[in-house]
Design brief:
This protein has two domains: 56 residues, Vcp-like ATPase, Chain A, domain 2; 205 residues, Rossmann fold, CATH 3.40.50.150. Helices cover 26% and strands 23% of the residues. The protein has nine helices and 16 strands. Keywords: Methyltransferase, S-adenosyl-L-methionine, Transferase, tRNA processing.
Length: 359
Amino acid sequence: MRGPFQYGDRVQLTGPKGRLNTITLVREGEFHSHRGVIPHAEIVGRPDASVVVNSSGEEYLALRPLLSDFVMSMPRGAAIVYPKDAAQILSLADIFPGARVVEAGVGSGALSLHLLRGVGSDGALFSFERRDEFAEIATANVVAFSGSVPENWTLSVGDLQETLPTVCAPGSIDRVVLDMLAPWECVDVAAEALAPGGVLICYVATVTQLSRTVEQIRRSGGFAHAQASETLVRGWHVEGLAVRPDHRMVAHTGFLVTARRLAPGTVLPELKRRASKSDFSEADLGSWLPDLGPEGAAPASAEVWTPEAVGERSKSDKVLRKKVRETQQFARERGGELPAGEAEERPERADPARPDGAA
């Protein structure tokens, strides 16, 4: 994380027009642009935050990427949790050094990297993922960043409801982070794993998922009142007297729902509030959320909550296999040690340069 650049390091190059390019330093490698070439050997040995000059005389600022830079430029198979949301998750869930944290699902490993940094070497992260391809992509990205699979990281492939009880003892977990299509299906198993006072935090993309998650947390009776929020980030252009908001911003990515685990047998007191037009009945819920109708009503179809129904874009198996190969090659370029069975040899890429966000 400090010292002169070495082969295998990830380097972020900022050109004259502010364009970012992230490369991995390899022997005999070169960074090419339409304006010139920078041999990787010209970067190796220089201190962090140095300026290098390409073959046509243009200057580039060379920096080691921050964690937020890394996750935005790493290969991905599934949509990642953006740094703005990962930062909120670490804060709202109070991820502390030494914490025992459960994460489901893993996706491309962006949130896993933030959680591993949050729990530190004394903590433990238990990650769960349904799809083998996503687990392999996440593993390769974590290895690319860390150099090897962290000893305090356990990645299990399978359904959380079935796998979590076999991995973590009841009441042994401090925090549970759910990033999945239907987190409400896992509220009960999360409650069983959490210690009293532990935090459940769910990341969902749509308003209907938000409503369904909060209602299930309320119905479960195992948590304090849930809180919901979203985070919008607006950058500012500051140059001389031209000080104004940027024309573009990172707006809605997802909602965060947090709730504290009650002690077993505790009955949460109802909030006292005046009667209003916002009071609702079971029939009202059924009209808004198809699977939350009054008792005795016909159950909703299993097709109600699908990735397509909530607007998720999925990748084909062929594309995912390609992403697995890409991330494993990415880890090898950085000198990472992949787990046995995942380190099959692949042809080296001719040009390891990859523009930020092009994953």
